[in-house]
Design goal:
Helices cover about 25% and strands about 20% of the residues. It is α+β, with helices and mostly antiparallel strands. Bound molecules: adenosine monophosphate and zinc ion.
Length: about 110
């Protein structure tokens, strides 16, 4: 059994507040939302950080962004807009070591991020 929190969501050991799922990707609401809409899009395959990406993952990353597009429509924020962020390692602010794309929407975002 994996010790990875997000792998446990993929396997069903922990039930996330799911908003989207296909063969390769799962998306759910962040437990500590930083915006009115805060979703996390993860690959079902365990990849710890962006540094662990391989060439064979190229289409998987594309599928994660296509999921964001579908979720934005579902959440009704496609036109108002949203931000996607993927944090890497400690300076990037990564706390869960299974890559995930944050999607934040429902308020104006600041730039640069803190
Ligand atoms: P990061 O800091 O980029 O690694 O993001 C990890 C995210 O996972 C944070 O925004 C957390 O709030 C979120 N998170 C942690 N545990 C859970 C959980 N059980 N369900 C949903 N989101 C979670
Ligand atoms: Zn994992």
């Amino acid at each position: 059994m994996s010790e990875c929190l997000f792998c446990k969501m993929v396997s069903g050991e922990i039930a996330p507040d799911k908003v989207y799922e296909d063969d390769d990707v799962l998306a759910f609401r962040d437990i500590s939302p930083q915006a009115p809409h805060h979703l996390l899009v993860i690959p079902k395959e365990h990849i710890a950080t962006l540094n662990d990406l391989e060439a064979r993952h190229a289409s998987l990353l594309g599928k994660m962004y296509l999921a964001v597009k579908a979720i934005a429509k579902q959440e009704g924020v496609s036109e108002s807009g949203y931000r996607t962020v993927m944090n890497c390692n400690s300076d990037g602010g990564q706390t869960v070591y299974h890559i995930h794309l944050h999607m934040l929407a429902g308020r104006g975002m600041q730039w640069p991020p803190g």
